[in-house]
Write a structure and sequence with these properties.
It is a single chain. Helices cover 65% and strands 2% of the residues. By secondary structure, it is an all-alpha fold. The chain has a domain at 140-246. Strands 1-2 form a two-stranded antiparallel ribbon. The chain is globular and about 50 Å long.
Amino acid sequence: MKTSGSALRKVRSRLDDGALRARARCLLARSGWWVAFRDESGTNPDRVWTEEEPMAAVLGLDELVALLERFGMKVAVDLEDAAADGHGPEMVTARLSHALVGAVEAHATRAEEAARQAGAEVADIAEVALMAFAGAHCSCESDEWALIEWRATRLAMVLSGLDFSGPFAREGQVGSGDVLVRTIRMVAAALSGMASAKHAAVNPAREAGIARDAGRALSRAMDALEQAAGDAPLHRNVGELMQMTD
C-alpha cells in the first residue's frame, strides 16, 4: 500500500534523531556489527556491540522480570533449577524474552481493537503495524528482511510445536491437528524458507555459505508449497460449505 510505504520511509528518516544516524547503523550492520541506539538522557549512551559479546545487548533477568510483571505476568527465576535441567542463564533469558514478546503482542492487539472502535480502518492498522520495524531499529532493507525472516521462522516453529484438535496425532516434534493445520504448517515453513532466501539475497555482508544454505531453504520452500497446493481442492470445498452456514 502506498500509504504504508510512505509511513515506513518517514519512520526510517526519523529513527534515532535523523537519517544520518540510521544510515550509520545500517553501514555498521553490513560490516557485521551489532548496534543499539539508546535514548539521549545521558544514562543510556549509544553503544556498539560486536558479535563476540551478544549478551551485552540483551536485557538482564531482573529487567525482564520487571517488564513481564508490568504486563501482568509474574515470573520467579531460579537459575539453579534451570541449570539442573541443563539450561544456562542465556536460555532462561531467551525464554523470558519470548514471553515478553507474547505479552507485548497481546497488548498490541488490545490497542488495535481500541483504535478500531475509535474509527481506525484496515489501512490505518496496516500502517500502524510498520511501527514494529521502527521499534526494531530497522533502517535498511536487509534489517527489514532479517526481522521478517525471524518472525516467519518462529511462526513455523510454534505451529509445529503446538497441539491442535483434529484426527492427526503428534509425530515427534510435529504437533497434532487436522488437514487445514497441516496445510498451514507447510505454508508457514515455505514462508520461512522464502524469507531466508530473500534476506540472504539483499544482505551484502552475508558470510560464506549463507547463500548456499538459503538456496536449499528456497528449494524446500517450493516443495512445501507444492504439497500444500495438493490440499487446495479440499479446502476450497470446505470454504464453500462454511459460506453456507451463516
